[in-house]
Amino acid sequence: MLSRSFFISGFTMEERFHYGGQAVIEGVMIRGQKAVVTVVRRPSGSLVVATQPLSTMYTGWMRKAPLIRGIIVLIEAMTIGIKALLYSANVSLEEEEEKVSGLLLWSMVIVALAIAVGLFFMAPLFLTKLLDPYINSSLVFHLI
């Protein structure tokens, strides 16, 4: 099997890292190789920069294992994103930073996912089951 290395701007593809992030309230969060940086604008106009190192769960060997890495990336994106949103909300409202416990944070995520699944999956399924005897057209059934 042949192996190729592509050179782009002096780096091989193995050496490149793709940075990612998301918008937060009055700011942005960027995830790097070893840390997460969140920059938020205060109501006074000044910028607040918060840097958080990533735990080994996000950078260790499990990150490279097939199947497991997809689950880890999903959990990582949710936890880092929610923490950054909570931080930006506190800074933009100039409130003292509340320490949200892990249990409270995960319970909020589980409730939000349950509402989303119920609203966008279960409700249409229940509605189509209810209306199935009254709908003769397959097209109308699938539009519901």
Describe what this molecule looks like in 3D.
There is one protein chain. By secondary structure, this protein is of the alpha+beta class. It folds into 2 domains: 9-100, no CATH class; 101-144, no CATH class. The chain has 4 helices and 6 strands; from the N terminus they run ββββββαααα. The strands form 2 sheets. Strands 3-4-5-6 form a 4-stranded antiparallel β-sheet. A two-stranded antiparallel sheet has the order 1-2. Strand 3 (20-24) and strand 4 (27-31) form a beta hairpin. The longest helix is centred in the C-terminal third of the chain and has 30 residues, at 102-131. The radius of gyration is 22 Å and the shape is extended. The termini are far apart. Residues 1-6 have low confidence and may be disordered.
Summarize it:
With 144 residues, the chain is of the alpha+beta class. Helices cover 45% and strands 19% of the residues.
